[in-house]
Amino acid sequence: MSTIPAPSTSPNWSSILTALIGRNDLTSADAAWAMGEIMGGNATDAQIAGFLVALRAKGETVEELTGLVEAMVATARPLPLAGEKLDIVGTGGDRHNTVNISSMAALVCAGAGARIVKHGNRAASSSSGSADVLEALGVRLDVGIERLGDVLDAAGITFCFAQVFHPSMRFAAVPRRELGVATAFNFMGPLTNPSLPTASAIGCADRRMAPLMAGVLAARGVRALVFRGGDGLDELTTTTVNHVWEVRSGRVREHQLDAEDLGIPRATLEDLRGGDARHNAAVVRRLLAGERGAVRDAVVLNAAAALVAYDESSAGSLTGRMAAAVVRAEESIDAGRAQSALDRWVEATAG
């Protein structure tokens, strides 16, 4: 578990807010101090709102986001799970209301042999969040923290319900809701999985924030692909070209990725449009049963990115590695292994 870095000076809200209003960057330690005050319930609503707005107006840095994330992880309920772990998650906020692509990709990756510890929550800006659709599929989310490791061992996939692991977020709930604008908190969820996964595939709709998120992961020393669809999706898209930031060995490399180069045809955003949890669960079932089309193409593309992040080898071009991973993702569906992963998951959480 991460620990909150000690501030280099003795910060207070006046010095923090004065720095931000003056468009001066904070150190990681000072950002962590502010987040620690928020998570500890020691900050007023006015201080929280002022901090978030001033930070957003100035523009967050990798160092600041790292401090915020480390402080948030330090206050989370721990989930010590040994071994390699992969998370597949998006920031949300793209306002396109697509089907639950990352949840389906997680099942496909579990079917392909990856150990998935998915971090998620209920819908905030869409009709169906990951928690909503998983419940509609029969996965119980009220499993005790002490059983999540057993579920992972039995099914190859488990779920960290964000509201369970980050109860201190309640202290920022009112200011965030009343502000009604995106803040740093909108980008911290995918970076604060309490199991500290060794690999991540993260979609970010915000073009400016995506490379900053990659920078946080690079500082942590994990493997990751952070990506943004050129159409604004917080997923890899099949409608146009994607921007990808690959994190390896503490370094970030930027790529462009076109699904057409992998033999995946163009689609439209309307082809990927979703609905409520019941509707999206039906889409999941049809995908796992072998239905082809634009949804399957998008899921396979995103699952392939996650498998590339999970793979310890980085030999060859990103396009070449993605092409090999696409084959693995398709086999997971066609051989029924993704469906089996869901069946095992439902059974493991039923007790």
Give the arrangement of secondary structure elements.
Layout: H1 13-21, H2 28-39, H3 45-58, H4 62-74, E1 86-90, H5 101-111, E2 116-120, H6 130-136, H7 148-155, E3 157-161, H8 162-165, H9 173-179, E4 199-203, H10 209-220, E5 223-229, E6 242-248, E7 251-257, H11 277-288, H12 294-310, H13 318-334, H14 337-349
Parallel strand pairs: 1-4, 2-3, 4-5
Antiparallel strand pairs: 5-6, 6-7
Helix pairs in contact: 1-3, 2-4, 3-9, 4-10, 5-12, 5-13, 5-14, 6-11, 7-14, 12-13
Describe the overall structure:
By secondary structure, the chain is of the alpha/beta class. It is built from 14 helices and 7 strands. The strands form 2 sheets. It has a 5-stranded mixed sheet with strand order 1-4-5-6-7, sandwiched between helices. A hairpin with a 2-residue loop joins β6 (242-248) and β7 (251-257). α3 (45-58) packs across α9 (173-179), α5 crosses α14 (337-349) and α7 (148-155) runs antiparallel to α14. The two termini are 29 Å apart. The model has no long low-confidence stretch (mean pLDDT 93).
List its traits.
five-stranded mixed β-sheet; 7 strands; alpha/beta
In a nutshell, what does this entry contain?
With 351 residues, the protein is α/β, with parallel strands linked by helices. It has helices at 13-21, 28-39, 45-58, 62-74, 101-111, 130-136, 148-155, 162-165, 173-179, 209-220, 277-288, 294-310, 318-334, 337-349; strands spanning 86-90, 116-120, 157-161, 199-203, 223-229, 242-248, 251-257. Homodimer.
